[in-house]
């Protein structure tokens, strides 16, 4: 049925007409051009659903985008709407220099402005690889047009010499073995063919899986939509249903501001902790919440962490892979287990509340999602640290850290930047012991630039050969959600802005106490003041013009979600979590 529902606010093809000073002509012209592609007046009179197509030859994590678009279009047609897909930037982790995070806000701007500029009554955003989902959610939150996030889904696991493997926790494990000379060149080449068995996103609880789960916890991904693997029929059905629901939401006016509420963000923070999610999740959630005017209170988040156990037995905190979580009921199994701690009245894109969705969810006999009484880890996956080394905070993924190193004091071995580290980490003459603390400066949001995932410093080769698997490592950068170790990240303010991290010198003592939530540089205030007076900050590189200049001028720190200042609303309206 053609949709003629609104005559007051323009909808469908009449929305957002190009300004020629004559609206009648603008509509006439628009229709004339699109009719060149064979559309009829009947088609053009319908509710229009945009589909953000992030398929790209450079992005195998989105390799199923054509199938998903076809299924979304089918769903839109079944509800009597018209689907039109359009391209936006696509970002794949290993194909983005200097780092994908550098481009996230650019993709968010692209997404927001394309939603605004083109006529659509609702939009289905196809994202998947780490930065794409947060970019799309940030952009769509600002555009506030009814939207549904559709993730591409996880890749399948592969097999190597009888062992099940998947990207990218196992990529790091095998590379560590190769560096330690435990496996040879032939085996590292062989496993390179096995780690990624299909298109789709990383198969562990890395950032992509985390963001898919957070999307569902926020209510902006269809219920059950976080976990179906990329190449399964379940994934295609979710795409079809996303298309159908987008038409319904366009008609009912279910805009993101009705879904992305304080309660939704609180639910998502709880889920981030319970799934042992990527540390990047907290930056992205902060960025998305910021677009809605909510500031994430990291100390309150830490209190939440003390009462939220890790329930999901997935790598890198546990054993299984995303396809196992899907067979175990997906995120809904986690949501149901945590029901007493969630806001069940939070609205979802299905048009029903989270509580209503969970009512219908059947019980699964499974061993991937643990009960609250038998968790993988007794507290939340992430702890928030503070101290004179990180006055505005730092984080550690405690569920993937070494219990023996969580209370540790050691001598600092300092690298001034990534290049310095690459040049010296494997130097046989490097003065380093297993009890030392590796410190990497200048990989923060501004410093690198783009806060690369270089916080997972490799164990120096000479120690790796001795069997050292983990050390305390500290930086102002990020680490991949697929990585594990006793690694302190997001030290804020960052070294490139003169944060205390910039003042650390070789041989300083550093104390980490996760139980006290403390990261301390044991150097006197007087000595630090002297060092500060001699500090020379690194200069921005190639920052005279273009996106890089905008980046340097506008980039905020990790505690503000690394969004651009000018993309955040002028005033925040509340802090989340509320207590
Ligand atoms: Fe794309 Fe991991 S590299 S999801």
TrEMBL record:
GO terms for molecular function: lyase activity. Transmembrane segments: none annotated. Keywords: Iron, Iron-sulfur, Lyase, Metal-binding. Residues 367-562 form the Dihydroxy-acid/6-phosphogluconate dehydratase C-terminal domain. Belongs to the IlvD/Edd family. PANTHER family: HYPOTHETICAL DIHYDROXY-ACID DEHYDRATASE (EUROFUNG)-RELATED, HYPOTHETICAL DIHYDROXYACID DEHYDRATASE (EUROFUNG)-RELATED. This is IlvD/Edd family dehydratase.
